[in-house]
Amino acid sequence: MIFRQLLDGSTSTYTYLLADADSREAILVDSVFEQHLRDLALLRELELTLRYTVETHVHADHVTGAWLMREATSSKIAAPARAGVTEADLLLRQGDVLRCGSIELEVRETPGHTDGCTTYVLSDRSMAFTGDALLIRGAGRTDFQGGDPARLFHSVREQIFTLPPNCMVYPGHDYEGRTVTTVAEERTHNPRLGDRVREEDFIGYMKNLGLPHPKRMAEAVPANRVCGRPKDSTATPRTPTWGPVIRTFAGVWEISAEWLFQHRDEVHVIDVREHAEVEASPLPCLRGSMVLPLSELRARIADVPRDRPVVLLCPSGARSTSAAMILEKAGVENVANMRGGIVEWLGLGFTAAESGPQGRENQLRA
Ligand SMILES: N[C@@H](CCC(=O)N[C@@H](CS)C(=O)NCC(=O)O)C(=O)O
Ligand SMILES: [Fe+2]
User: Which residue ranges form the domains of the chain, and what is each CATH number?
Assistant: First the structure.
């Protein structure tokens, strides 16, 4: 099985990617709206087909990426039946099994943090995705969305702590950077509801947490009730329209050499090699490209033209990746790295007619 734990740093939310290594079919547990392009990039780079997004509950602190994923990949949205959401394709109940290639996830209802919380357990019981029912050395709060500490106590004790001691527990959040625990570890060391803790102590603990409501609760709960369907399309993550750019998991927009060859005059091309290197290199400059070395780029953002999209180049496409990130951070709107760099360009046989820097290069060098 292919397995990845992904973090949304701003809400400390974990998203889990599970995929069958043979059929390449994948499931995403608890995707995050703002991480849509990251998750799409990973699916593409690992050559996976997303079959399902699965929700552990109606989140109060962030918006799910489920609806966006369905739009982008034709995946199906699976959600707990008791979460009361619309827009889902599959409503899951206690004892149901969600199948994706050879992966089977058993559905265990674990209400208490919210009344629709669900834990998903791999069929060999080696991994459990507990959402916010059981956190590492903690448990989800119980003060809104039908939360109830007594119910949570019984959910965890009966549905999670009955799993094998070495079952790995992957939570929906961790606010301290911890990533995984086991059933045995939590039964022994969870200060809120480990084996030694009595129900009334847990209830007393949870009733006195004194946490402020999540900052984004007013926006997140209604959005998650429709599986993350945005109110209007302007709220969806922006994908550039100037060309077939692809967001990589490394976090940069990329475009192909083939596209650049066919649309050379629609963009500015910036070669980020050092000047001396360009002069000494057997690798040519593309026709009309500007040389603006990576070492000077941060100080010369103002020299970057903005009237057309900017495509960045270097021999292998590595340094230009860094250049693309610098320009994006600096607010240059339409920017992409050319995948594979000049070597790829030459490999495609684009050499002669397309090489030779434009006069402007000298201007930029001055
Ligand atoms: N400060 C966070 C609050 C996060 C929060 O309340 N998280 C919920 C999960 S949705 C929780 O149960 N936290 C338990 C805890 O922090 O002990 C925010 O504003 O988003
Ligand atoms: Fe939650």
Answer: 2-235 (3.60.15.10), 246-365 (3.40.250.10)
